[in-house]
C-alpha cells in the first residue's frame, strides 16, 4: 500500500487544487463546536479538533431531503403525480473525517444497499464522496472504538488515511478513489521509511490511549427473547427522557420518516431523520402503539444496535464507539454499560447453570 | 437504479361503500401506464403503499386476487390523514400505488393441503384475495378442503357481502359466517365470536391443514388458544401482521419485531416464527 508524505504547504496547496474538482467538506469550528460543512473557497478544514459534536452522517444523508415534487394544480396535466427530485451531486471529499465516522457509513450501507432493493438517494450521495480520514492521535476518554469493531486509525470506509506527524501528514492511500484525490491534489511524494514507521507508531500509541471498552462476544448467541425480557431494562430506561439526542448524534442511526409538505398548489415529499425514541415513531392509526412506553423504546435502541443488527448481518455491533451518545445524553445513559450488561447476561445465566 | 419510493400512477376506477357505518370503502384502481400492471405482479397476502401527493402513504393489504386482471383493489378503513382523504376521493381521481410489498401466504407449502381461513372485521382483505385466488378454476384443484370462518360485529359490518353469499352457494368451499350480535330475524348464519365458531367449525388439525388467521388483536388473542387446543401446530398457523410503516422496503426502521421487518420479512409469519421474536406488534 502506497504512503505519501504531505508537508503543511503541500497540504494547503493540494486542497486548493483539489477544490477545483471536488466539493470539499471539512470540520469547521462554529461557536463552541466543530461541525462538518462545505468549505468556502480558500477555506481550510480546521483539524485541531477531537471530533465534531454531531457526526458527519448528514453529508451523505441530509436530515431533510426532498424525494419527490408534485403539483396539486387541477389545471396541470401532471397534477398529483410524483416526480423524482434528483440531487445532483458532483464529486466531493470529506476532509478530516474520523475513522469511526467513516466506518459508520459502511454499517449504514448495509441498510440502504441490499441485494434486492437499493436506496438511490443514499447511494448516489455515498458513491460521489471521497473520504479523507484523519487518524486520532488523542482519542476522547469516552471513545471505545477499539472494542466496537473500529479504531483510531481504522481504515474501513476510508479512501485516504492521514496521520498527523506534526510537521507533515503521512497519508495511506487505501482505494482508487483516494489515489485519484491525491493525484488531483498533487500529492506525489512517497513517504520515507521514517514517516512510515512514524505512522505506525502514532496508530499504535492512539490505540493504547483508548481506555474504555465494551464486550460483545456473547451478544450474538444469547437468545433474542432472553435479552428482550432481561430484568435490567426498567433500570436502564428509568432516567431516559426520550429526547432523541442519542439517535440524532449517532453516526450509525439511520431511521427516517417520510412526510409531504405542501405550500399552495405545489409540494415536496421529504425524507427526514426520525428516532426510535419517539412514541409517534410506531404509533398505529388505531391508537395502538407496540412500543408505547419509554422502556420499549430504550430497549429497541439498544437491542437494534447490539442484538438485532448483530444477528441480521453478522458484521459486529451497529456502533463504532465514537462515544457521542455517551457524552451528549442529558441523563447519562451509557451504551458501554448497557452493552456489557447485555453481553454479560448470558454469562451470568450460564454461570448459574453450573453447579 | 430503480427508485423504490416511486409509486405507479393509477386512476380510481370505482369506489364501493362496504359497511353500514360507511367507514370502509373499497377502491378499485387501474394503472395509467398499462405496463405497470405487469410490473405490479403480486401474490395473495402482499400489500402496497397507497400514495396521495400532499397527504402521504398508507400500507394496505391487496384485496384483489392475482387472478383478477385489469385492476387492483384495496379496502380501506377511515382512520388517519391519508385514509380520510382517500375516502373523499372519487372515480377518475389520480393517485399512486407503490408495491407490491412484503411476502405472501405460503402458497407453495399449502399446495395439496386443507386451508381454514379465519378472519375478523376489516382484516378480511388479503383473505378475500386468497379465497378468490384459491377458488380460481386454475387453482382450486391445488388445494384440499377450504373453510372460511369470518366474523364481524353486525351483518352490516361484513365486507364483500355479495361475494360471501356467492361462496355460500358453492360446494367447494365451506363458509362459516358469524356476527357478534344481530336483531335481524332473517339472519341465516352464525351468531357468536370468531373463537367460539372456530372451536366448533374448524376442520381437524393435522399435518395436512393450515390455518390463516387475520383479525383484530382481541380476536387473535382468543383464537390462538382454540387452535392450539384443536392441535394445530405452530408452524401451520399463519398470521399477517400490521405495524406502522413508512418505506415498506425494510429501511426506515420502525416496523420491526426483533430483527424482522414486518414490511419486508413479513407481513406473513407463522406462529412458530412469532414465538421466537419479540412481540412488538
Describe the structure.
The complex is a heterodimer of chains A (355) and B (281). Chain A has two domains: 3-54 and 84-209, no CATH class; 224-353, no CATH class. The longest helix of chain A has 20 residues, at 294-313. Chain A has helices spanning 8-18, 99-112, 120-127, 176-185, 193-209, 224-228, 233-237, 245-249, 294-313, 324-328, 335-353, and strands spanning 3-7, 23-30, 33-38, 64-71, 83-84, 92-97, 129-134, 160-164, 168-173, 256-263, 266-273. By secondary structure, chain A is of the alpha/beta class. In chain A, strand 10 (256-263) and strand 11 form a beta hairpin. By secondary structure, chain B is an alpha/beta fold. Chain B has two domains: 8-101, Elongation Factor Tu (Ef-tu), domain 3 (Beta Barrel); 114-240, Rossmann fold, CATH 3.40.50. Chain B has helices at 34-39, 81-88, 125-135, 161-168, 194-201, 217-229, 271-275, and strands spanning 8-17, 24-31, 47-52, 56-61, 72-77, 94-101, 114-120, 146-152, 174-179, 190-191, 209-214, 237-240, 256-257, 260-261, 268-270. Chain B has a seven-stranded mixed sheet with strand order 10-9-8-7-11-12-15, with helices on both faces. In chain B, strand 7, helix 3 (125-135) and strand 8 form a beta-alpha-beta unit. The model of chain B has no long low-confidence stretch (mean pLDDT 96). The interface between A and B is large, with 51 and 45 residues.
